Amino acid sequence: MDGLSEEQMAEVEAFLEAIDNHDDVQNVYVGLAG
What we know:
Nitroreductase family protein, YebC-like
């Protein structure tokens, strides 16, 4: 995920927030933070 610009990361984060009720989303956040 290192190749994303700040704008692209904002879009990804907004998308993840939109689906935040899904059980797998927490795992995605961990992957991004790593």
